[in-house]
Design goal:
heterodimer, A: 112 residues, mainly beta, 7-stranded mixed sheet, globular, B: 6-stranded mixed sheet, 4-stranded antiparallel sheet
Chain lengths: 112, 118
């Protein structure tokens, strides 16, 4: 079956703009989590959605938000982009919250 | 708060030699434990996981890991590495299901960069 699909793969944005990233989970998976990966901070948990509800959120400012649709697809949005938001954003899906997570290839966001 | 320590930032191993990557964790209870591998510019691929039961778990690509509760460790091993094993390896912990599940998502170590010498 198809894996986790993230679009777009690459993005270049200007400071102050906003961006929306998309994630399509594996069919049947209801939990979608988002992670930010940077060389300095490593992999950090952003938030998790399960059945359209945000279960929890990591230690990120309110500029980072997300949502999940009834088909389990998820989007994350970053408003008022800063240079420090440049990162690889990874989406992971799982059957339920505590099951193993399968990761997509990520979206590489560059803020200039 | 939970944490994961991978003490080795870089490890260089000769092709065909054995490998052990170290992982120590701090968690209030026995967590779910994972090892992921990441090739440059790619996402994470799950190598193996430990939820409960047998403390020696087998994964894909010939990897195995042993959970040692007394040492809070979950070290990854492979008896003979191949050049294609060169990548970044991440150990991660997640909340066990009985706690109600992924309130905090996965907590990752900083990763170990594996270099394979010919």
């Amino acid at each position: 079956k198809a894996g986790v699909t993230q679009t777009p793969r690459y993005l270049i944005k200007t400071r102050g703009q906003q961006v929306t990233l998309s994630c399509s989970p594996i069919s049947g998976h209801r939990s979608v989590s988002w992670y930010q990966q940077t060389p300095g901070q490593g992999l950090q948990f952003l938030f998790e959605y399960f059945s359209e509800t945000q279960r929890n959120k990591g230690n990120f400012p309110g500029r980072f938000s997300g949502r999940q649709f009834s088909n389990s697809r998820s989007e994350m949005n970053v408003s008022t982009l800063e240079l420090g938001d440049s990162a690889l954003y990874l989406c992971a899906s799982s059957l339920s919250t505590a099951d193993e997570a399968f990761f997509g290839q990520g979206t590489r966001l560059t803020v200039v | 708060a939970q944490s994961v320590t991978q003490p080795d930032i870089h490890i260089t191993v000769s092709e065909g030699a054995s490998l052990e990557l170290r992982c120590n964790y701090s968690y209030g209870a026995t967590p779910y434990l994972f090892w992921y591998v990441q090739s440059p510019g790619q996402g994470l691929q799950l190598l193996l996981k430990y939820f409960s039961g047998d403390t020696l778990v087998q994964g894909i690509k010939g990897f195995e890991a042993e959970f040692k509760r007394s040492q809070s460790s979950f070290n990854l091993r492979k008896p003979s590495v191949h050049w294609s094993d060169a990548a970044e390896y991440f150990c991660a912990v997640g909340p066990p299901a009985y706690s109600g599940g992924g309130a905090d998502g996965l907590t990752f170590g900083k990763g170990t960069h594996l270099i394979i010498q010919p």
